[in-house]
Design goal:
The complex is a heterodimer of chains A (about 350) and B (about 400). Chain A is mostly helical and about 350 residues long. Chain A has a single domain, classed as ABC transporter involved in vitamin B12 uptake, BtuC (Orthogonal Bundle). Chain A contains 16 helices and four strands. Chain B has a seven-stranded mixed β-sheet, with helices on both faces. A six-stranded mixed β-sheet of chain B has the order 2-3-1-4-5-6, with helices on both faces. In chain B, strands 12-13-14 form a three-stranded antiparallel β-sheet. Chain B has about 400 residues and is an alpha/beta fold. Chain B has two domains: about 190 residues, Response regulator (Rossmann fold), CATH 3.40.50.2300; about 130 residues, Rossmann fold. In chain B, α11 packs across α12. In chain B, α4 links the parallel β4 and β5. In chain B, about 45% of the residues lie in helices and about 20% in strands. The N and C termini of chain B lie far apart (about 75 Å). Classes of the chains: A mainly alpha (about 350), B alpha/beta (about 400).
């Protein structure tokens, strides 16, 4: 039985990869760009979901961890010449000037550094709960940004970095997104994941059952910031340029919106809403332009797509308070059951 | 309950697939042109019936005001010059939401979906930098309006701009401090989280040290962050150093407060700044305290730089009933420079336009004569202004050496 499921899973993954390859070869650059962004937002959404969804810790520090990943991987993939031309205000610190490594190891480094710093930040503030934790993480994320703004010889400060080789492709973003999804599902199933969810449901009861609260919360933070760092690195190499202002609170908010919309704690919900939100925001762009309805033309109002998007959000929040999926998941079992019910009806 | 959820999800996925397919179709009516001769494959051959200028600007978000001012300039230019080579010009405007990621999306949409011949924009160097690699890869020339960071055009053969860059502005102000004010020792107080301020401070420092030949002529560099309200700590330090002048590049609201607090502390040294000060809010916030500050900018409505300036200023006054801002003139210039390049190239092929742009010499724009150097940066005059009786007043024009 388990083998059969695994085969179906493998088949599904291969199917997704095949579809992506076809899309990659047939779509224009604009669509591919959005596809890439969707993949990155899946990774970011899932990473925030570990902290906010699985463990129930309300963290708002995601942009900071992304910044660490983005800057680390960018500084590692840049060539010596790129570094020289970027750092014209203050020369780059000597120990970084001649370092250049491949894209994947750089991404990994970015993720690991983000995880280490995430753990370091989380350790002292994990005593806080709820709103206080949210405020503290938000503060730390801003602190990271301000540090990056002021360390000119390390990050080029407010000027940002430009001219990064744009390594990020659909294969990277979606490959890593699929790995992240698989990791999240197995984490959910594992004893660690169950412990995290126990903490979410009732901290005291979880502790009474012998779960080490500190250790598990720290684990959630570390995993979350690791994937945030990877997502940040991918975003940097998709854009080709980064600056500290990119990693403002608004970026955390974007990711949080995806998680809340999809259902806090649901992996499939986060994936679906990451794709929907990314595509919707671009697709609704036509609202900003001149709209010809045949019998009348509406002069475009910049920002109209934001209004409509907010309306859609409100509808979702009013009618589905727990997000699209709540805490449910789409699994092979549930899909099978769903189709079985339909078949029964037809028969 | 579970089933309803599944149904919802299924519907979402389906609608997603549908929207993905119908996206280009849905966008065509937005472009106000009939879809009949959609030039899909043979677009960049120059045989299209119309020329498309793509504009990306921050129309919403933190910098919406800047984007709106530039859009005014482009709209005005289109009213005055609606066609080129006998073909009508269609302007496609997309919003970059004052966000770097959105800016890259917007630029990709312009070059990939709208098939524009030239890209114009954007307000803010970081948004232009996000679009840089996209226009370069697509081989579509872009003309920056008011993006002043040297990094925008650096190493990018397809990005040009009609504005001078931070390095020139820093040099101009350093010369002003040395020649006109006779300053020997200067303090810089910069907004460290503002790329423009950091760039200006750097070039001012280099030039001033070169002029005085004294490594210590910049006594100190103090920093603050965007949004700061209280500068007394930095200013008290500066007062103790007793500089001859203070160079304070940064946004208008912070610097206006900074100058005000400096005067309250009894700092007598004159303040120098950059073009960002030229906003009504600067005088509103600063009040009496900003009287006599000196800054460099692109353009002044009271002192037309070229015949085109007069056409522009008159048309603007007629349409909006007030004097145009500098960035409006720059956006106007970007538009007419694109027309000029197309006419010189005799073709709407992006590559030909790019080559023509690169050869721009002595082009008469509303905000001065533009000559593009090997990086694609404009070499042009800077205007020095001061604040007198609560109004920006023209002092002098400085030409590049």
């Amino acid at each position: 039985m388990i083998d059969k499921k695994n085969i179906i899973r493998l088949g599904l993954i291969l199917l997704v990869l095949a579809v992506l390859t076809i899309l990659n070869n047939t779509m224009g650059k604009y669509e591919i760009r959005i596809l890439n962004l969707a993949g990155i937002y899946i990774i970011l959404g899932l990473s925030l979901n570990v902290i906010n969804g699985f463990t129930g810790l309300f963290s708002l520090g995601h942009a900071g961890f992304m910044a660490i990943g983005a800057y680390t991987s960018s500084l590692l993939t840049m060539s010596v010449i790129q570094k020289e031309s970027n750092f014209f205000v203050e020369p780059i610190v000597p120990w970084l000037a001649n370092v250049q490594i491949g894209f994947l190891p750089a991404l990994l480094f970015g993720g690991i550094l983000a995880a280490v710093l995430g753990a370091m930040i989380a350790a002292p503030i994990l005593k806080l709960t709820d709103d206080y934790l949210a405020i503290a993480t938000l503060g730390f994320s801003e602190i990271i940004r301000v540090i990056f703004t002021n360390t000119q010889s390390l990050t080029n400060g407010a000027l940002g970095i430009k001219g990064l080789t744009r390594y990020t492709t659909v294969h990277y973003t979606w490959g890593i997104a699929i790995l992240t999804i698989l990791f999240m599902f197995s984490l959910r199933k594992s004893s660690y994941g169950k412990a995290l969810m126990a903490i979410r449901e009732d901290q005291t009861a979880a502790e009474a059952m012998g779960i080490n609260l500190f250790k598990h919360k720290l684990l959630a933070f570390t995993i979350g910031s690791f994937f945030a760092g990877i997502g940040g690195g991918l975003l940097a190499h998709l854009m080709g340029t980064i600056d500290p202002l990119m990693f403002r609170f608004l970026l955390t908010f974007n990711v949080l919106l995806i998680v809340v919309l999809g259902g806090i704690g649901s992996i499939s919900g986060t994936v679906i809403s990451a794709i929907v939100v990314t595509i919707m925001l671009e697709w609704l762009r036509f609202l900003d332009g001149v709209i010809d309805l045949g019998f009348m033309t509406i002069q475009g109002i910049p920002g109209l797509r934001m209004v409509l998007f907010s309306l859609l959000l409100m509808v979702v929040i009013i009618f589905k308070q727990n997000g699209l999926m709540g805490r449910d998941e789409i699994t092979i079992d549930s899909l099978g059951g769903f189709f079985a019910r339909f078949r029964k009806k037809e028969a | 309950m579970k089933r309803i959820t599944f149904l919802l999800v299924l519907i979402l996925i389906l609608s997603l697939a549908l929207t993905a397919c119908s996206a280009p179709a849905a966008e065509e009516p937005a472009g106000e042109e009939p879809v009949a001769e959609e030039p899909a494959a043979e677009e960049p051959t120059g045989e299209t019936e119309e020329v498309v200028f793509g504009v990306f600007e921050p129309l919403t978000g933190a910098y919406a005001a800047g984007g709106a001012m530039e859009l005014e300039g482009i709209e005005l230019a289109q009213e005055l010059y609606p066609e080129v080579l006998g073909m009508p010009i269609r302007v496609v405007v997309v919003d970059n939401k004052s966000d770097k990621v959105e800016s890259a999306n917007a630029a990709t949409k312009l070059v990939d979906q709208e098939k524009v011949n030239v890209v114009l924009g954007s307000w803010g160097s970081s948004f232009s930098m996000a679009a840089g690699p996209i226009v370069e890869e697509a081989g579509i020339p872009a003309i920056g309006t008011s993006c002043t960071s040297p990094l925008v055009t650096l190493g990018n053969d397809y990005y040009f701009r009609v504005t001078f860059i931070d390095s020139f502005q820093g040099v101009v102000m350093a010369n002003y401090a040395y020649d006109v004010l006779g300053a020997e020792e200067v303090v810089i107080i910069q907004d460290i989280s503002n790329d423009y301020a950091v760039g200006l401070a750097k070039f001012f420092k280099d030039e001033f040290i070169r002029l005085t030949g004294n490594e210590d002529s910049i006594v100190s560099i103090a920093s603050y962050n965007t949004g700061d309200q209280d500068f007394t700590a930095q200013l008290t330090n500066i007062k103790a150093m007793n500089p001859d002048a203070i160079f304070a590049p940064g946004g208008y609201s912070e610097t206006a407060m900074l100058v005000k607090q400096a005067k309250e502390l009894g700092l007598e040294a004159p303040f120098l700044g950059g073009d960002a000060w030229e906003a009504a809010e600067f005088i509103e916030i600063g009040g009496e305290a900003v009287e006599g500050v000196v800054f460099s900018t692109f353009f002044d409505a009271a002192a037309p730089l070229t015949p085109e300036s007069e056409i522009f200023i008159n048309a603007y006054r007629e349409k909006y009933g007030e004097d145009p801002a500098s960035v409006t003139a720059l956006a106007y210039d970007a538009y007419i420079l694109a027309i000029d390049a197309i006419e010189r190239a005799g073709s709407t092929d992006p590559e030909a336009i790019r080559d023509a742009l690169a050869e721009t010499v002595g082009f008469d724009g509303a905000a001065g004569v533009v000559t593009l150097d090997e990086n694609g940066d404009a070499v042009k005059n800077a205007v020095i202004k001061t604040v007198e009786n609560g109004e920006f007043t023209y002092l002098t024009t400085i030409s590049p050496k």
